[in-house]
């Protein structure tokens, strides 16, 4: 492909004009999918003809959209703009528009368009279109790192493609792949491994299961099962053919580099990174190239070869910017910050770490956010900026203490039932040690700093009693230390264990989040945001009383559970709850008054809440509808006339949820 790229790119400007039937000798003995997989990497023109021919023969709208997507990907991968939308049908224009929005990192626009298309497909009972759109949403949510939001789509997709009589539109192994990647990133390793094994079983003979073995190996690396990982990667290497895609070969080299890095084999790791870059370094696979350069830079950073580290990390950053990849950009900027911190260049370190933190907050990249917060706090502590050291460390501890349950890979429990408890114990012991280090540093300050030191030690003491394990460890595990709402796992357990209501009574769920909360943080800083969260939940709990359960699902998103209410809560009742929380401005630490509004969705039901995953999917889509239509409102997620793109909706209707 690279040797005749100029010719290819010039000819591809023809876009989707139909080629003559004798342009290439397409192997008519093969399926169109086999021809597509044979030519897609090394002969784009031939691939384009294969897709054009199949588009003319497509059986239904879903297949036409799927083929248009493959055409769009072909254009993007060859660095050609997709500028032929005038010749598209309206549904094709909307679908391709969503893909373009996703490529350009416009998540909201892409999700809105795909969700609307999915809703229409559900209403029209078009299972092929449902499959395609759940596939696209599962894949897109994963691309933007929103794996929990993507899980319902992935689960719907899995249910659809596993139906015995369903004829799939998307290649089954491709559908399994995006589902497995979602499970992996959530730490659901056991489920992911099962799906990867399904991929190996369902792959057609013309596609070697290289990617499946490669991705299984990555899970095994995460689990520190290095020998098994190496066996799977060796199997992947054996399966690679001489004419295999350079991108697939690069993936395997990259995985070997990761494995060798974890095993301390630095020289071998560098060689694998360079092998991978030699294969795709001149392609338009921005994510892959950026990831490779970043891995190489981080490796040199560990070796304290700062010149090479800075060189390769900056290349990774530049490639990520070119490809609009916020995740890789945030990780690259973070690595630069860590490098300067290691070089004791605090000014440049803080500049890059704060930039990484901003990117992580904007695009919800948890690991980058945590690493940046901890490193910023460390630098401020070492430079005797005690207040900033405390503030950044407080947020870091808040997040880690909150997430230490939900972030643990759930598959570990199947390996060793006691591991989770040990992990939690270890997490909090580490935090205690960090706190002790800070306290020791304060004790050693000069007398001029003693006043501030004592005040901060009091604050840190309060933080310690709130955030770390004590004799009341079980009670503390249930509550978010900032807002005192139930933690995510605790509220989910409470909801899932809620039985059917008594006669003439109802269970009510209300999902809500704070409108434009990011602007509060940007304007008043995280202490201001903390004050808003704390005050709102305080008002909410005071209004609802002890019979209601309030839980924090993450960030500014909360859920309320009211059991066995003798009232069927109406929109007016929910608006009163809004008013109780937002009736007057919130006064911040600097005397500023902030007016807050919230958006919510709610459901009343007489049924048990054991199907909370389905309920959450409905509530989440309804909340998205409210936020897309002006915010500061509520909606009855089951009864109000809104589009709910959820296969779960039909199931819940069968159960008579009101």
Automatic annotation (TrEMBL):
<feature type="repeat" description="TPR">
    <location>
        <begin position="250"/>
        <end position="283"/>
    </location>
</feature>
<dbReference type="Pfam" id="PF00990">
    <property type="entry name" value="GGDEF"/>
</dbReference>
<feature type="domain" description="GGDEF">
    <location>
        <begin position="505"/>
        <end position="640"/>
    </location>
</feature>
<feature type="coiled-coil region">
    <location>
        <begin position="100"/>
        <end position="131"/>
    </location>
</feature>
<dbReference type="InterPro" id="IPR029787">
    <property type="entry name" value="Nucleotide_cyclase"/>
</dbReference>
<dbReference type="InterPro" id="IPR011990">
    <property type="entry name" value="TPR-like_helical_dom_sf"/>
</dbReference>
<dbReference type="GO" id="GO:0043709">
    <property type="term" value="P:cell adhesion involved in single-species biofilm formation"/>
</dbReference>
<feature type="repeat" description="TPR">
    <location>
        <begin position="330"/>
        <end position="363"/>
    </location>
</feature>
<dbReference type="InterPro" id="IPR050469">
    <property type="entry name" value="Diguanylate_Cyclase"/>
</dbReference>
<feature type="repeat" description="TPR">
    <location>
        <begin position="210"/>
        <end position="243"/>
    </location>
</feature>
<dbReference type="Pfam" id="PF13181">
    <property type="entry name" value="TPR_8"/>
</dbReference>
<keyword id="KW-0175">Coiled coil</keyword>
<dbReference type="InterPro" id="IPR019734">
    <property type="entry name" value="TPR_rpt"/>
</dbReference>
<dbReference type="GO" id="GO:0052621">
    <property type="term" value="F:diguanylate cyclase activity"/>
</dbReference>
<protein>
    <recommendedName>
        <fullName>diguanylate cyclase</fullName>
        <ecNumber>2.7.7.65</ecNumber>
    </recommendedName>
</protein>
<dbReference type="GO" id="GO:0005886">
    <property type="term" value="C:plasma membrane"/>
</dbReference>
<keyword id="KW-0802">TPR repeat</keyword>
<dbReference type="InterPro" id="IPR000160">
    <property type="entry name" value="GGDEF_dom"/>
</dbReference>
<dbReference type="InterPro" id="IPR043128">
    <property type="entry name" value="Rev_trsase/Diguanyl_cyclase"/>
</dbReference>
<dbReference type="Pfam" id="PF13424">
    <property type="entry name" value="TPR_12"/>
</dbReference>
<feature type="signal peptide">
    <location>
        <begin position="1"/>
        <end position="25"/>
    </location>
</feature>
<dbReference type="GO" id="GO:1902201">
    <property type="term" value="P:negative regulation of bacterial-type flagellum-dependent cell motility"/>
</dbReference>
<keyword id="KW-0732">Signal</keyword>
């Amino acid at each position: 492909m690279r040797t005749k790229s100029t010719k290819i790119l010039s000819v591809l400007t023809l876009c989707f004009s139909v080629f003559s039937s004798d342009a290439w000798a397409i192997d008519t003995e093969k399926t169109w999918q086999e021809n597509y997989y044979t030519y897609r990497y090394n002969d784009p023109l031939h691939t384009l003809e294969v897709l054009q021919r199949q588009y003319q023969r497509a059986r239904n709208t879903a297949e036409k959209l799927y083929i248009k997507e493959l055409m769009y990907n072909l254009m993007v991968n060859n660095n050609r703009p997709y500028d032929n939308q005038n010749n598209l049908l309206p549904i094709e224009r909307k679908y391709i528009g969503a893909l373009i929005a996703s490529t350009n990192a416009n998540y909201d626009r892409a999700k809105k368009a795909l969700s609307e298309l999915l809703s229409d497909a559900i209403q029209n009972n078009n299972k092929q279109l449902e499959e395609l759109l759940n596939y696209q949403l599962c894949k897109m949510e994963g691309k933007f790192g929103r794996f929990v939001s993507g899980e319902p789509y992935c689960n719907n997709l899995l249910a659809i493609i596993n139906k015995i009589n369903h004829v799939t539109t998307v290649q089954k192994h491709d559908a399994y792949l995006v589902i497995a990647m979602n499970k992996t990133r959530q730490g659901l390793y056991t489920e992911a491994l099962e799906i990867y094994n399904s991929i190996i079983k369902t792959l057609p003979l013309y596609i070697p299961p290289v990617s499946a073995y490669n991705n299984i190996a990555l899970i095994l690396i995460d689990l520190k099962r290095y020998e098994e990982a190496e066996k799977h990667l060796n199997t992947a290497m054996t399966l690679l053919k001489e004419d295999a895609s350079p991108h697939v070969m690069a993936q395997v080299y990259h995985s070997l580099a990761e494995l060798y890095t974890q095993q301390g084999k630095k020289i071998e790791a560098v060689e694998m990174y360079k092998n991978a870059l030699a294969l795709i370094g001149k392609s338009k696979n921005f994510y892959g190239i950026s990831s490779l350069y970043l891995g190489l830079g981080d490796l040199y950073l560990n070796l304290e070869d700062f010149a090479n580290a800075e060189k390769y990390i900056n290349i990774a950053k530049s490639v990520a910017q070119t490809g609009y990849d916020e995740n890789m950009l945030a990780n690259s900027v973070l690595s630069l910050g860590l490098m300067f911190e290691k070089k004791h260049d605090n000014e440049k370190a803080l500049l890059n770490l704060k930039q990484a933190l901003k990117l992580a907050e904007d695009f919800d990249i948890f690991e980058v956010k945590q690493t940046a917060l901890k490193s910023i706090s460390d630098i401020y502590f070492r430079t005797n900026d005690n207040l900033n050291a405390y503030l950044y460390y407080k947020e870091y501890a808040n997040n880690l203490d909150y997430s230490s349950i939900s972030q643990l890979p759930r598959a570990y429990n199947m390996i060793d039932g006691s591991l989770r408890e040990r992990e939690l114990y270890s997490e909090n012991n580490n935090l205690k040690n960090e706190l002790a280090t800070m306290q020791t540093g304060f004790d050693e300050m000069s007398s001029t700093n003693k006043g501030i030191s004592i005040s901060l030690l009091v604050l840190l003491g309060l933080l310690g009693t709130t955030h770390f394990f004590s004799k009341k460890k079980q009670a503390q595990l249930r509550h978010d230390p900032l807002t005192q709402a139930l933690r995510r796992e605790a509220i989910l357990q409470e909801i899932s264990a809620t039985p059917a209501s008594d006669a003439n009574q109802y269970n009510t769920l209300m999902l809500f989040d704070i409108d434009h909360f990011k602007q509060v943080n940007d304007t008043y800083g995280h202490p201001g945001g903390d004050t808003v969260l704390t005050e709102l939940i305080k008002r909410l709990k005071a209004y609802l009383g002890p019979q209601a359960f309030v839980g924090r699902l993450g960030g500014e998103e909360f859920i309320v559970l009211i059991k066995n209410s003798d009232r069927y809560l109406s929109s007016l009742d929910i608006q009163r709850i809004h008013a109780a929380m937002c009736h007057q401005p919130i006064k911040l630490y600097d005397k500023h008054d902030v007016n807050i509004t919230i958006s919510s969705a709610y459901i009343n039901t007489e049924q048990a809440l054991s199907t909370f995953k389905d309920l959450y999917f409905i509530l989440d889509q309804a909340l998205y509808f409210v936020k897309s239509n002006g915010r500061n409102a509520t909606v009855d997620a089951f009864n109000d006339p809104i589009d709910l793109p959820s296969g779960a909706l039909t199931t819940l209707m069968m159960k008579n949820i009101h």
